Amino acid sequence: MKFSFSKYVWFDGKFVLRTKAKVPVTAHAIHYGTSVFEGIRGYWNTKNLFIFRLEEHTRRLRNSGKFYHISLNFSDKQIKSAIMNLCKKNNLRKSCYIRPFYFVGEYGINLHVTKKAPTHIVIITFPFGDLFNKNGISATVSEWRKFSDTSTPTQAKMGGNYLNSILATQDAKQRGFDEAILLDQSGNVSEAPGENIFLVKNNELITPPLSSSALDGITRKSIIAISKDMGFKSKVRKVGKNELKMADEVFLSGTAAEITPVVKIDKNRIGDSKVGNVTKLLMTAYSNIVMNKNKKYSHWLTKVY
Ligand code: PMP
User: Model's pTM, two decimal places?
Assistant: First the structure.
């Protein structure tokens, strides 16, 4: 995927040239993964730039750090306005990805991270299109299992947590698939490395619960709300591995992936290898919402300009 970062970043309250924003090699986060991050999308509709669900992403950014007592030295209001102002500073007039993160700075080799550990916050942006092929991708059920809350909190978007996602992605790509699907510790379907998963069976949506170690995805929640409005039933319940190949349709959901159809899982073709009707309807509804073409959901969007 080709992308180039925008010129400016926001670093501890100031706009800095990205090439001048430096972190010491002794920063704790580089050694131990003590960083907290979010992924947010901005949508450009040729006139306006809208940020999708800024409120929810900012809340999750704060809550992730709480699991580890990692301090966030700015208020939600300051972070939201920094995100908006950074988009303006970078003169973003394209759909974009926004990555706010904070991390433990110089703290020796101390594993006893407390609220007193020094932290830094950075926001970066870059123009961003589709993450995956929206005509459908292939996936494989990974041998790597999703970690559970008995090891590290699954609801914390921490840098260190993503080593599990990296292993599953490496394995999937090495075996020729576009994406991995991870099972939870009990062998039920959990999620993809950076996306939630939905199955469609008999026009009903099914997605695994948080107790299957799935992230409480903001896109997942949005899809549950939109599908209800469209008259579809949805169930949050445990999903057995064998249900995947029996599904009429499967799709992934996430900020970066938006709604991405899965048309092949291991050796099994899903829905004749074509994008399913329910998935198609949801993709259209979602893209209308993020472009502010459906006023009912305008409150999910924050206008930059
Ligand atoms: N699961 C994981 C592990 C993720 O990293 C993400 C991306 N944040 C998601 C699911 C989807 O979450 P969201 O819809 O909030 O982007």
Answer: 0.98
